[in-house]
Amino acid sequence: MTAFSVLDLVPVREGGTLSEAFAASVELAQAAEQLGCKRFWVAEHHAMEGIAGGATSVVLAHIGNATSTIRIGSGGIMLPNHTPFQIAEQFGTLDALFPGRIDLGLGRAPGAGPELQRALRKDLHQASEYFPHDVVELRALLTGDIELPVTATPGLGAKVELWMLGSSLFGAQLAAKLGLPYAFAAHFAPDHLDAALDLYRRDFQPSDALAEPYVSVAMNVFAADSKDAADTLASSQQQSFVALRSGKPGKLPPPIKGYAATLPAPHRAMLDNLSQAAAVGTPREVSDAVHAFVKRTGADEIILCGSTFDPKARIRSLQLTMQGLAETADGGLAASR
């Protein structure tokens, strides 16, 4: 049975505020919990006025206080931006506050230019090279499986579920070697999806945390009462993606009806490439697309992504998506409740 979860970028919309963005994330997490989603993840981004999840552990504490059963975590923490010790303390604290509910998804790509590197006081290129070592050290700080000269308190003994994130073969290799669950970011980088999952499953080595491979795949999902309405709903995120790839990121813009048709061919090609990991339409159309994606990937879990200008429209989209999936559960898919 495939589980369903939610990834939130904590988007800040044009004309909106940070406070409104955090409030919207809480409402989305509460809706995901009520709908039976398994986990709610927040992604770390920095120096982007349209994304408010930079202080990821703080945002997760805010969401944890407003929910009670859904797992919460990072999708992910970009470990080169930090020291393993700091992250062990932060997520050890979260585990103490919300026992049995904390996920720690780790990514390697810092996504930072020279200005941000200076602000973080980090050589992120060098830090990325140490990523595998830092993951092992972080796990040891939490589990004590390797004796270290310092103890993280909070941290040591925390029952944090560690994940490896990726959009290339590197993350798949490391997840397989360390015996960690693996989440692939197909929602923005689908090109290496099939090869990465094949490699992960082929080379997986069981660990104390995980006996068999476990795969989660992120996809963009927008559901509405009609295909046309869903396409319009998706256009805010499409605009943000085009702006980001064009070097002009900003706040989440209002939707534009027929947006994709107005784009030059290279930008349309970018969006077409992303569509292989997307489901946009009515609840039945979305359900059919998700079924097909699960059949392609064999995913144990699907992470539902997709920012909307109107936060209530995203909650409605999630409700329609879960409704459509529940109604077609005869194919072996069902919401994890």
Number of domains: 1
Rounded mean pLDDT score = 94
Named at the architecture level, the CATH assignment is Alpha-Beta Barrel
CATH topology, which one?
TIM Barrel
Main β-sheet description: 8 strands, parallel, barrel
Q: What radius of gyration results from the CA coordinates?
A: 19 Å
> Which ranges are low-confidence, i.e. pLDDT below 50, for 5 or more consecutive residues?
330-337
Structural class: alpha/beta
Q: How many beta-strand elements?
A: 9
Strand order of the largest sheet: 1-2-3-4-5-6-7-9
Order of helix and strand elements from N to C terminus: EHEHEHEHHHEHEHEHHEHEH
Helix share bin: 40-55%
Oligomer: single chain
Which percent range describes the beta-strand content?
15-25%
Organism: Erythrobacter ani
InterPro entries: Bact_Lucif_Oxidored, CmoO-like, Luciferase-like_dom
Pfam family, one: Bac_luciferase
Protein name: LLM class flavin-dependent oxidoreductase
Describe the structure.
There is one protein chain. This protein has 337 residues and is an alpha/beta fold. It has one domain: TIM Barrel (Alpha-Beta Barrel), CATH 3.20.20. It contains twelve helices and nine strands. It has helices spanning 18-34, 56-66, 84-97, 114-120, 124-129, 131-143, 169-178, 193-203, 227-245, 265-274, 283-297, 311-327, and strands at 3-8, 39-42, 71-78, 102-107, 161-166, 182-184, 215-223, 278-281, 301-305. Helix 8 links the parallel strand 6 and strand 7. It is globular, with a radius of gyration of 19 Å. The chain starts with a strand and ends in a 10-residue tail after the last helix.
